[in-house]
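Fold these two proteins, one after the other.
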Amino acid sequence: MTASEVFSVERDGHVATLWLDNPDRRNAMGPPFWADLPKVMEELSDDDEVRAVVIAAKGPHFTVGLDLKTMGGAVAGGAVDGVEAATSQAARAARFYKDVHRLQRSITAVADCPKPVIAAVHGWCIGGGVDLITAADIRLCSADAQFSVRETRIAIVADLGTLQRLPRVINKGHVAELAFTGKDITADRAREIGLVNDVLPDAESLWKAAHAMAAEIAANSPLTVQGTKQVLRASEDRTVQEGLDYVAVWNAGFLQSNDLFEALTAFLEKRPPDFTGT
């Protein structure tokens, strides 16, 4: 697994937990975060032993978002790591555009993971943290969690995925309220508007619940779980009939698996199935 200053990975059976592991900086998203996240997600995506991923955080907070101390120059379009700003406005804009796309790809690596991804949030989840969790499939949080689409409060239009993915999670009115005001919302409010599936009493119970859900997912056929994720994603931008056609083609190609035979055999033998993903 990729060595990282800000991430660590734990495996338990077919569940991998990707820890945001920079608690001294409250898991602020600095250069190592953006460089390492797509590498780690690619490795987890390609590992056939991993069937579900939990993203959680060490320390008192999930993440306080973009690390303005190390990324402020990039955000403002100025010098980065001692490199002087480009001489023309056009050149600075072109470089900024390229840098934003690089950061976007880091978050998109989470959304593109073929395995289900569960975000387990405790403490603060600010700005870029919301970008991250909206790229996950399922969100859980602890009672102390607080969420904020903070960008308007620091004069930024959120550009790493929140404005594109959050409307697929909660309704447009709630999106507008959060994005325009930059307000903080509690765990209970997040559950009320559908941002999270459930609220757990504390961080320990949150991590246990997220792992239990991931293990429940991992006990199913990985072929069909990943197929279900792909069909759900493909259906988002299709009509109902187009989605039905898509899943018909999918099952025509993938239904006849060893896992299907195992499921039928286990049912007849009245035992839990042992899926291999073949």
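Now the second one:
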Amino acid sequence: MKSGKKYSDSFKLIDRSKQYDPEEAVSLVKQTAKAKFDETIEISVRLGVDPRHADQQVRGTVVLPNGTGKTKTVLVITKGPKADEATAAGADFVGAEDMIAKIQGGWFGFDVCIATPDMMGLVGRLGKVLGPKGLMPNPKTGTVTNDLTKAISETKAGKVEYRLDKTAIIHCPLGKASFTEEQLTENLRTLMEAIIKAKPAAAKGAYIKSAVISSTMGPGIKLNSLRF
């Protein structure tokens, strides 16, 4: 497949045999973001764990200090006084049985679903539709909670979930190409520190196998994982 001129020009800026320090990699990824829209800067981290084993799962959330550049649409499933709290905290959609019926009808107009523990009996019915989309509320990611104000404010501020896929890779956004190098580097370091801290006790050998950052339309840039 023939690459476009912009991609080819960006590719020439990168030494494919080199692993770049975070600051250098961020500078390069901004230079390679040549699209007419504000590209998302993403990272892919390959871990030395076996995702088939429950004791080697890596999953969690972290609030990126400079956000992601995207405001997330939040649905909260709750009722009573907690519904009022969710609305006051800035949730975009709040409801209970009505929202569950809406989702069952095929509506997915939200990026994050948060629920109070008392509603999980009802929310459990949505597992087959929300699970595959990564939208199912989960206590491990702070989306099943009674502290709705904190959960909503963190989500709006730039909380991201990092989660191991079947190939032992974590994919996560770091921000936008319009961010400053300092903002992207700070987000990168914050995320990598969280992933390193989440290392399972059962993991053996090298934990961070490789890490690559790229813009939406740009080539991958290898990171020196020893610099974190």
